[in-house]
Amino acid sequence: MVESFDSERSRYASVGVVERLPGALIDSIWLIIDLDLKGVIPLTNMLYFDLIDNGGNVTVHFSQEMNDVQMAIDLPIPYSDDYPSQVFAFDDGTKETILLPAEMLG
């Protein structure tokens, strides 16, 4: 069985994500997957990350379908109202991409 979110796969961020999030926050989401989630809980191919204003800095809240495990990670990255409220990380088996919810529909 091939596991989801193997750090050896190619990783991308959609155009919408790159336009709305700083690179440090995108990189932090990949690090959360690799260091805090992978190997700790079974991961599906779709991960949900809510971006929350926590006193002016970003808190990333992780969840996924079919699993009650949730996790919030505080980051030393300033929060902006321009950030989307949620992004997805999707693993199609060959590449991994961080996307906006609206980009999953197309």
Helix run count: 3
**Which series of helices and strands comes N to C?**
EHHEEEEEH
Question: Termini, distance in Å?
Answer: 28 Å
DSSP, total strands: 6
Shape: globular
User: What helical percentage do the residues reach?
Assistant: 10-25%
Gyration radius, to the nearest Å?
A: 13 Å
Mean of the pLDDT scores? 93
The largest beta-sheet arranges its strands as 1-6-5-2-3-4
- How can the largest sheet be summarized? 6 strands, mixed
Strand content: 35-45%
Keywords:
six-stranded mixed β-sheet; DUF960; alpha+beta; GTP cyclohydrolase; 6 strands; 106 residues
Summarize the structure.
The protein has helices spanning 15-20, 23-37, 101-105; strands spanning 10-13, 46-54, 57-64, 67-78, 86-91, 95-99. It is an alpha+beta fold. Strands 1-6-5-2-3-4 form a 6-stranded mixed beta sheet.
What does this protein look like?
The chain is an alpha+beta fold. It has helices at residues 15-20, 23-37, 101-105, and strands at 10-13, 46-54, 57-64, 67-78, 86-91, 95-99. The chain has 3 helices and 6 strands; from the N terminus they run βααβββββα. The protein has a 6-stranded mixed sheet. A hairpin with a 3-residue loop joins strand 5 (86-91) and strand 6 (95-99). The longest helix has 15 residues, at 23-37. The radius of gyration is 13 Å and the shape is globular. The mean pLDDT is 93.
SSE inventory with pairings:
Blueprint: E1 10-13, H1 15-20, H2 23-37, E2 46-54, E3 57-64, E4 67-78, E5 86-91, E6 95-99, H3 101-105
Parallel strand pairs: 1-6
Antiparallel strand pairs: 2-3, 2-5, 3-4, 5-6
